[in-house]
Batch of 3 targets.
Target 1
Amino acid sequence: MNADSKETNSLYKKLGLIPGWRWVTVILVFLIFAVSVITGIKPIGEIRGGTAFYDIHGTLITTTATPDRIEIPLSDMSPHLLHAFIAVEDSRFYKHPGLDPIGIARALLHNIQRGRIVAGGSTITQQLAKNMYLPATRSFKRKLAEVVLSFYLEIRFSKNEILERYLNLVYLGHGAYGVEAGAHLYFGKRASDLSLAEASMLAGITRAPFYYSPYRDLDIALDRMKTVINRMLIIGYISEDEAKNASNEIIQTVGLGRRETRPAPYFMDYVIDETLKLLGDEGALLYSGNLKIHTSLDIKFQHAAEKAFAKGLDALTPQNTEKKSTSQAKIPIQPQGALVVLDPRNGHIKALIGGRSYSETQFNRALQAMRQPGSSFKPFFYAAALDNGFTAASTLPCEPVTFYRQRLPYTPTDYGEFQYHFRWLTLREALVTSCNVVSVTLANIIGPETGMNLAKKLGVQSPLGPNLSLVLGTSEVTPFEMTLAFAPLANGGKRVQPIFITAIEDKQGKKLYHSRVRTLQVIDPRTAFIITDILKQVISPWGTARSISSRFLPEVAAKTGSTQGYTDAWIIGYTPNIVCSVYIGNDNPSVLLGKSGGAAAGPIFADFMEEVLRDGPVLTFQMPSEIVSVEICHETGYLASPGCPTTRRELFKDGTQPVYECPWHGSSFYPR
């Protein structure tokens, strides 16, 4: 090698450049790859078959094969629509050659500043390449192919042709693909007739169709619409007056109507959104990729849940409500509610209902409704007490008492005619009868933070207030959270990761995604078993769910919940393989339901559990080791003496059982 060559190579190294012959090699390799990609592409022309969704047993639930894709030329689309999509998805669309380094850098900077992915750098051309040609697999090779195909599309088609194809393929939620179908879905209009505000809302949905759908949450959709309008203003597509008028426009949607015929609509909405997140796809794969989505849903459980839910809600609905609702459009019939069913062994969501009518309201109360759980929150504090020196036989008084927290007085009372028992209750009796006074006293002793922290470990993620009333369920949570939090009581103390999708396969049967069961031991198995044993007595003649006590096998545990003034009604019950939560209440919390958890939610729970337990195996809760059963005095919780009028057997963690005979009825006070 001569001196000039050495000097050149040295300069390349200093500058971090590749020598000329290596550039040639890189370009040749890229060209070979590009040719192989382009010659092997098979564009999606017409509908090739939608994605199929299956339940846990392989039964077909539904498909995305739908006529809701209508091809229209760019000239039949509102100019506002074109500008809105370009503004929010690819503002430099007409300036780049298919790949936008400036857009990529801008997105990278935003993501670094926010500490998470909040913006993407894909151009409209890249999105079209992915939607038209590429498989669902997420890999470096696929991304490289996306870049190659973007350049190919830019050479093969004009910018307007690319935009037209993109707008006819883009997924806009609820099974609608393309802007014409989206315009009909949300506004009952043609794409050419959309106003500036409507076009902006439609363009804003593209980023996350489930999340930004006005049928899911109108406020979120409106906020996203204003973001798009602001982008159009910044770019110069509209004036300040146009932006102001559009932001203040009252949006009228037409409702989903017949789409409620899709099975398990609330469950499927969430599954579709999760599929899009898992695949990192805007929706074309769901529409034309022939995917197979295997879900955790058990269609038999879903049907049983829907039947029980409809029957229970109808019984709670005043006779004149339905007629009133038809005359006042868009006001959902009240009361509303939610139902969630989970398998505590693996986290599979087996059934889910988010409201009484999907066509009437797409708000998913199972996942989104923040309501006070009332007394159904108490087991978390009692479990915390068992881990902090108490036993099921420990006694506390139910009598007038005032607590002072931050110098403010708080005097708990029980509901009903008799606000106090005026005697000492064991923790078992207090939880079964849902005594507020004993529960608050217990929270005061162990500290509300202790109960709050355990609730969070069990699965409650919503903000909780560390005050004494928390034990009475005064912080708002979702029905889904309560279902997750009860699962460790059913499975020996393990928190489970919820699973909606078990597997995703492409049309060749290749696994694109497969779920894994994830569990974490969060409480002592002995604590979980003792709390469960107590909650089995809630469904008994002396428990708060006494009205349904004659309808169950002994291996069903539950806790009811009623909020102040009977605003909301809850029941969360479980067996070793089923956790079912039912929430009932009016969407307007100022309107009282007027019934307790046992009376309003209990019958729905009972109807569902009877149906699914009828033909299934009878599973029993397995008692862990180091639990002992001891005969105690029912009144005092001490070891039973011959003079005790009523005795019963109680469960204890070995080493915590009483050693003294009952001092009230016994003749001696010595340890046995």
Note: The chain has three domains: 64-290, 368-493+523-599, 625-672.
Target 2
Amino acid sequence: MSALGGAAAGAVALAAAALAAAGCASSDPPDVGLEGLRLASVQPGLVVTGSTLALGGDSFVAEEWGASVLRLRGQSAGRAVDVTVAARFVDYDHMTAETDAGVIAELGGAADRVVRFSGEAVLEVVSAVDGKTYASAPLALTLDVAAELTPEITTVQTGGVLFVNDAVQVDGRGLLLGGGEGESVARVTGCFQPAGGGACAPVAEEVVALTAAQPYSRERATFRFVPGIAGIREGSFSGQVVIENRHAGGRTIAAPPVNVGYDLVSAQVFQVTPPVASLGQYVLIEGGGFVGGEAGASTEIRLVGTFVPTGAPQGGAVDLLLIPEFETGNRVRYVISPSDALGMAIDLRTVTGTFTGTIQPIVRYQGDQVVGPTRAVTLGIAPVKQVVYIDFRPSYVESLRLFGLRAVDQAIRARVLEVVAHAYRGVNLELRTAPPTDFALFSLVEIHGPDPNGQGLFGYDNSPGKDTGNLRLHDRLGGVNAQTQQDGYAGYGGVFIESLMGFSLHPAAGQSLGSAEPLFDQIFDPFRPDRGEIIVSKDLTGGVPAADGGLCPASNRRDRIACAVWTMGSLIGGTLAHEIGHSLGLANPYGDGFHNFGDEPNRLMDGGANRSFAERAVLGGEGPADFCTEEYEYLRQILPPAAPDVSSRPPC
């Protein structure tokens, strides 16, 4: 909840003002965000009306920093073409471009034929920073183009054993990829004969969407053998499959029918992973025949056996019915949760141990129920772990322009992670830079450019109330929290790097803090666009120079770059570690207030006014800041790892 900093302003306005400011030492510097612009790929290779082109490359920018178009120049259907398509930012390595009937016509596509475009693709961006047009190097490109596609099916998987919801493979040509194109579907008809004998009873036609087996593949796809076709019981199915292309704005075109037949088996569990999991973590249950995701369909998991707490001579009997989340017919996942049958049986925050017994699926569909066979299983319960997803937002990247540091973004991120990891050494906390897929309960901290609260905050924990004991595990320090706004506090959470400009005696945005430091300007002025020369690619020949802070401020440019990376990463990392501490219930977890009382050197949870610039930046022999003794013991209680950190800590 650090409340220091200058007033935030719009990133585009700030960058433009910085470039226009008098005394700029560089002569017409390039837009460093577009300096490495590169187009590496355009997919899919066959384009139809409504296709979304996926563009891969480097140094793409969001709309506020430049207007981007994909330009296709070459020959198609015996004539020269030059077509531009608006491109939309996804991330710095990916963009998309939407085609329509007009684009397809310009490229020579028609309903009755597929034509070939041969030429080159270029990504052009008009920079919002300097108004110049930047273009990628031409990418040699061949595209097949058509207004419509007729499916040509060579094979549909037939014979063998299937579980309900298994994927059935389809091979051929001319399949649709979904989205704006429309979709390819399988129309399935036939009859089902139960395993116990009897007549093969006709089943109603079922229409199931196809999914490309590989990204952009029009030659191979699959459809699920959904329970609506033949139910969930064992038996045999025989019938026909018709593949249709249902164009979004046009006709439905069908391929000839294909005869198929399958032996159907009931649900089973094959394996459970991981073998040890902690509170909030997903346990994956893999097998076959699972159902869910639609009305009247559900899968439950029964565990029967014994749970032995760690260190106990014996355990207790367990008979639990769990309700997992349906993913596919081959996998469901269960969250280790305090609110379900397992969590009600043991305290998942304080008790670890091992369950040994059997696992069994129970599948229900439209009033029918099938109980699968049991399988032996062992599942360990591990200590609580706090997973923290650090989301570096595009506004953070672009706000580095104010400091002239956009070109060293990745090096700054590495320093940020180093600082946070050092603060939480000896605590069972794990940092991630991609959204976790193995944990349902994880905290999120967003790193932004400007402070959306307009208060010049360095960072803010906008989660509601002090979470003593870290009971939530899933705080969101990012976006807007309506509850905190109603309480009269700032609504937007995260870390805001533009506010750090308040340490400058001549900030490019906002006002100087009362604690503004000449050292800040010595480190960053050489690169600020309004005071010096921004870092560009030629400065980084041989890689980003490394520093430990001891040589700062430096005298030559490469060492100055190292100092700037060290300092910016330390400032952001220290603020991030501080805000994560708030989300875990600090400071004073069992008392009042959100910061330590008084002012002691190198205490991470001191109030903002009690933490000097040098301490935050780990310069001049100050820092790095740490949790004080009692805070560290509290963190060890709620997030216990295997071994503690034994280094000295400041008093509380």
Note: DSSP finds eleven helices and 35 strands in the chain.
Target 3
Amino acid sequence: MLRQAGLPVSEPFEKVETAVSPPATQPILNWPAYDEAAQNRLAEVILPFVPPALYQRLIATRATEMAEHRPVTTIFVQFDYKNRRDDSSAIETADLGQQLQLYYEWACAVVSRFGQENARVNRVLTGDKGNQLHIMFGAPVAPDAPEQALRCLLALQREKPAFIATQRIGVSVGKVFAGPVGSSARREYTVVGDVVNQSARLMQVCEPGQILTDQLTAERTRQVIECEPLPPIHLKGKQTAVTPHLVQRDRATTTLMKAYVDRWERPLVGREEELDLLLGGMDAALQELGATAVYGGTGVGKSRLLSAGVRHWLAKDGLGLIGVCYPHTNDTPYSPWRDVWREYFGLTDGLTVAQQVTAVTAQTRALLPDVGEDVGLWRELLGLPMPQAAALNDLTAEARQVRLFSLIRRCVQAIALQQPLLIVLEGLQWADQATLALLDDLGGHLDEAAVFLAVTFRAREDMALAILERPSCIPIPLVDLSPTSARQLLTQLLGTSELPQAVEQHLGMRDREGRDSPVNPLFLEEALNVMMGAGVLRVNGRVYVDEAELARMQVPDTIHGLLLARLDRLPPAGRDLLQVASVIGRQFAAEPLQVIAQTPTQQIVLNLLSELSESEMTRLIAADPEWIYLFQHAMTHEVAYESLPYARRQQLHAGVAGWLATKYEHNLKPLHSVLAYHYSRAANHRQALQYAILAADEARHIFANREAIDLYNLAGNPPGCAR
């Protein structure tokens, strides 16, 4: 070092009494020393040896220095093999070496799934201190993304390979030195700092199967990740005690029922009588069958009222399941019931078809030990390739439906003996006839069961349902809010119950003569959104009205117009993505959205969806691994779809159909009617005909005759095809 500093070296040790100038730094790569051909060759050679993000930064910027201070999320994972020797965790056999490679590749894939270019497995450590991974988010590319990191770690624990016995994980966030570390002969890009040491120490005190983080990380992620604070502890190398937090679960990962309920955060306004009716019926149903039908026009709050009842039911330790009807599935037999039973059986896209069949079979036999060959009847409703005995195949379509309905009744009764059961079917105006027939069958045969059936639809006169005429069914019609209730809602939204008369006329709270008027709650909320977005209204402790801007602006006088105006105010990228999502459906996943919208990375899609959720256009209902979102309101979905030009709609429907056909190629049967719908809207008449006939044959086979007729008609005269 003395020689490098330009000082004489005559003794093994020499006292230095003058300031020593720091030696000149060495560039990570001396680009000017190479000609263009050599630079290109160097770029090819180093690619396998450096992280992709670092490679891109080196190549794009021709950087000579990479050292910097930057915020990161740093993670240490200690992993133990099931077959390691008791006296050492070091890699000692060829099998363990192969397992290490498999484990490393698996961990890299999980990290990439969450972090994209801003995350990577930094290194693998093996030795007398155990086998460890060091993972980092935020270097060399931002952001540090602690939310992504914790979701990644939950997935690492949830999905660990079978040959791994346990994992202990410590994670911290903070500023570090990031850059090349080592000697002039060999250097690597890594991160160094106190926060790195802290994550390692947290790993060391972690129990098997747990994830420990620090208070700062827990605070930054508290909106999306649930953490439990533990008693303060002293970590090696730390002078002050640290409060570790046990990472428990992703708040966004929930049941479909809870996701629909949690959309509504504000208290219910103006529906006190209706809520009393609903809760009274639910309390009675804890002993015997009950039902309710909540109906009314768009935006009157059917789902919001029902969600208050669901919270009440769940608070009584009841089980809740939900199915939703959609316009594009009204020819799919049992469409909402499929949602109900897939949720009960725990069926997700993460399970293979064989695993789903196994789960349905095992859980049905647990409910009904004497079910026998009838377990194969789930094929009719779930569309899974359940094995069916020859005796079932020999039955007529009507006889199979009778046996299927009996199977479902018995399952519902068995579930209700364990836990009171609530089944919600939303949007019955779009229901298929098989769905309605099953609903009526349950309503007529479960008088002694602790079951409550709740349905919503728009117009009472359009629903011919036997269950609606039963004494146990409570009809709850909803209309616009009264002027008094509208002012209560206004107080909730703005903190005041009164606004200038001109504003209240725009909000629908007063008629042209200035008299108080009933108002649709959704219209009131969306009109306020338009006014606040345009700067007419501002709320900052007090409400301010820009009278001049109010005189110039025109507020749409329909809910459709208000939602379209709100859609128009979105940033172009968010608006375009929302329109693509509307073609997939009211509920949609990020994976097909990224493919169909041709977005470069899933992270870009997730960022845009997060912004749309903040603006209350969408809502995240399930995070990794599926990332499922929901349009906040059915009308928002309809408006987004209708705003698309026809040519663009056709293109997107073709994209959705192509993605579905590829993704589920091993079991397309449940999707035949949906594929027929998308291909028909894409004007691909050949494919629409093919899938419509397949779906119609299947509907006829399960005695869904109305759906079969509609599908045969679709096959004979697809939209846009001249007869």
Note: The chain has four domains: 66-250, 256-477, 483-565, 571-716.
